[in-house]
Amino acid sequence: MLAIVKETSPITGDDIAEKLDTTRAALRSDLTFLSQLGILEARPRVGYYYNQNRHGYDVYMRMVELTVGQYQSVPVVLDERSSAYDALVSLFMNNIGTLFVVSEGGLLEGVLSRKDLLKLAVGNTDMHVVPVGVVMTRMPNIIMTTPEESLWMAARKLTHHEIDGLPVVKKLGEDQYEVIGRFTKTNVARAFVDIGYGYAGGEDDE
C-alpha cells in the first residue's frame, strides 16, 4: 500500500483498493492507522499522499518490531457457569471492558464485552439467572492474538473489528486455547508512549 501511494500520489482510497484487488472498506482501518501515524496525508477530494517525513514510518517500524508479549496485561477470566450479573460485577470491579470466559479446564470458551451486557440490561432481563454463555461471543468467532504477534497486527485487529480487547492465547490443540494475557487499546497507548519517550530522548515533561 505504501509503495502504491509513494509511486502514484495523490491517489484515492478507491484507486488503492483497485490496485490491490480488494475493497475500500477492507483498507479503511489500515488507511486510518497510517494517517494517524503521519505516514500518509489525506486531502479531501484529492487523495492520499506519502509523507516524506520518515518519523511516522519509524514509529510504524517500531510497532512492527514490538510484540504483544511485551505489552500484554494479566487476563481477567470468568467461569462459563457464571451468570451475566457475575460478569457485570467483574467488569466494574476490575475496571475493564472485556472478559474472557473459560471452561472448567481453563480453555477459552467465549468473550464478553460491556456492550453485550448493556444489550441484556436494556431488555430488562434478570441478569442473575442468565448464564454468560447466552450473551458471549463463542468460538470460532473470537478474534485472538498471541505473544509473538506484532503490536501492529494486534492493533489492526482492534481497529478493524472495532473491539476493546483481545485474548492473548497459547494453542494447546485443535480449537483449544489457553488464555495467558489480555491486549487492549490501553496496551497500544502504552506502547505509543514508550515509543514517543524514546524519540524524546528519555526526558519527561517538566
Detailed description of the structure:
It is a single chain. The protein is α+β, with helices and mostly antiparallel strands and about 210 residues long. The radius of gyration is 20 Å and the shape is elongated. α2 (about 15-20) packs across α3. It has a 4-stranded mixed sheet. The longest helix is centred in the C-terminal third of the chain and has 15 residues, at about 185-200. α5 (about 85-95) links the parallel β3 (about 75-80) and β4. The protein has helices spanning about 1-10, 15-20, 25-35, 55-65, 85-95, 115-120, 130-135, 150-160, 185-200; strands at about 40-45, 45-50, 75-80, 100, 110-115, 135-140, 165-175, 175-185.
**Average pLDDT:** 87
Range of strand content: 15-25%
Q: From the alpha carbons, calculate the radius of gyration and give it in angstroms.
A: 20 Å
Low-confidence stretches: none
Strand order of the largest sheet: 3-4-5-6
- What's the helix-strand series? HHHEEHEHEEHHEHEEH
Residue share in helix: 40-55%
Compute the number of strand runs. Answer: 8
Q: Give the N-terminus to C-terminus distance in angstroms.
A: 39 Å
Write the layout of secondary structure elements.
Blueprint: H1 2-8, H2 13-19, H3 24-37, E1 40-43, E2 47-50, H4 55-65, E3 77-79, H5 84-94, E4 98-102, E5 108-113, H6 114-122, H7 132-135, E6 137-138, H8 151-161, E7 165-173, E8 176-184, H9 185-199
Parallel strand pairs: 3-4
Antiparallel strand pairs: 1-2, 4-5, 5-6, 7-8
In short:
With 206 residues, this protein is an alpha+beta fold.
Keywords:
single chain, 206 residues, alpha+beta, four-stranded mixed β-sheet, two-stranded antiparallel sheet, 9 helices, 43% helix, elongated
